[in-house]
């Protein structure tokens, strides 16, 4: 698919659109990742008749750099702007990692525009950390070693179980993208977002929700417990992908795609 661009205050958001007249699904990646993280579930969603639009975050992928605002709320506004641009009716939003917080904000800011949300490896509230964990994270991402440290962590730790067949090539492409001028600075701006606002809004989400978590997600002390608690708060079914890390949509698409399709069926009625 050809990359499309949407002008926003402060820059341009890159996205692609599978087209068609099916129900609209808009997916955004996590920090440092690209919209192509959904490449392995796209065929199944398309075969189910869904119109899949995947968008890059501010400063990453093919979006422009040097934005004034990289907050969860800013990314939520990008979700809504893309939905308005496509103009295909209410959308189901898919978030991964930090973009899950933005999907919650978008769903509560414009409930009439959002039919449902899928949150994968979700950071939708601030996860408690000890002071030394926060310090270690800041140190790991600090220049000049931060980019290579992140890429190494992504390559080895974020996929502790199954790996996509194109894993090495994909991670090499992410590394190259983050080496482009301004991109690593954008990445760091996203990396230290607070998810407090999303956390405050969880009980306000009225649309159907699906929670997806890898059982071996390294970003959570107890992935199953976090997923279960979010499921209770959001009155949402929970799918645990056995052995998956932070990106089950990429490493276990056969597990993740069917419940997304089922959520879309419920959301669009």
Question: How many helices in DSSP terms?
Answer: 11
Number of domains: 1
Helix content: 40-55%
What is the CATH superfamily classification?
Answer: Alpha/Beta hydrolase fold, catalytic domain
Give an overview of the whole structure.
It is a single chain. By secondary structure, this protein is α/β, with parallel strands linked by helices. The chain has a single domain, classed as Alpha/Beta hydrolase fold, catalytic domain (Rossmann fold). 42% of the residues lie in helices and 16% in strands. Strands 1-2-4-3-5-6-7-8 form an 8-stranded mixed β-sheet, with helices on both faces. Strand 1 and strand 2 form a beta hairpin. Helix 2 packs across helix 3 and helix 5 (146-156) packs antiparallel against helix 6. The longest helix is centred in the C-terminal third of the chain and has 16 residues, at 253-268.
Compact summary:
This protein has 269 residues and is of the alpha/beta class. It has helices at residues 42-47, 72-86, 99-109, 131-141, 146-156, 167-178, 183-191, 196-201, 223-234, 248-251, 253-268; strands spanning 4-8, 11-17, 24-27, 51-55, 91-96, 114-120, 209-214, 238-241.
What attributes characterize this protein structure?
single chain, 269 residues, alpha/beta, Rossmann fold, 8-stranded mixed sheet, 11 helices
């Amino acid at each position: 698919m050809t990359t499309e661009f949407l002008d926003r205050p402060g820059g341009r958001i890159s996205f692609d659109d599978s087209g068609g007249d099916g129900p609209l699904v808009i997916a955004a990646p996590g920090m440092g990742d690209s919209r192509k993280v959904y490449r392995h579930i796209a065929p199944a969603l398309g075969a189910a008749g869904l119109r899949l639009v995947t968008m890059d975050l501010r400063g990453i992928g093919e979006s422009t750099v040097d934005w004034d605002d990289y907050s969860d709320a800013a990314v939520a506004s990008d979700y809504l702007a893309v939905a308005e641009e496509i103009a295909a009716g209410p959308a189901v939003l898919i978030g991964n990692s930090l973009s899950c917080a933005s999907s919650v904000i978008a769903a509560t800011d414009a409930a009439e525009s959002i039919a449902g949300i899928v949150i994968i490896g979700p950071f939708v509230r601030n996860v408690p950390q000890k002071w030394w964990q926060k310090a270690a994270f800041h140190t790991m991402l600090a220049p000049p070693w931060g980019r290579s440290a992140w890429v190494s962590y992504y390559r080895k730790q974020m996929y502790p179980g199954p790996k996509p067949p194109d894993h090495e090539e994909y991670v090499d492409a992410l590394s190259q993208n983050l080496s482009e001028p301004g991109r690593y600075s954008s990445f760091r701006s996203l990396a230290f977002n607070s998810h407090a606002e999303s956390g405050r809004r969880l009980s306000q989400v009225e649309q159907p929700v699906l929670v997806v978590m890898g059982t071996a997600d390294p970003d959570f002390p107890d992935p199953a417990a976090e997923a279960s608690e979010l499921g209770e708060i959001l009155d949402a079914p929970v799918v645990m992908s056995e052995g998956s890390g932070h990106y089950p949509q990429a490493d276990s698409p056969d597990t993740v795609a069917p419940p997304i399709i089922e959520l879309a069926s419920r959301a669009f009625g």
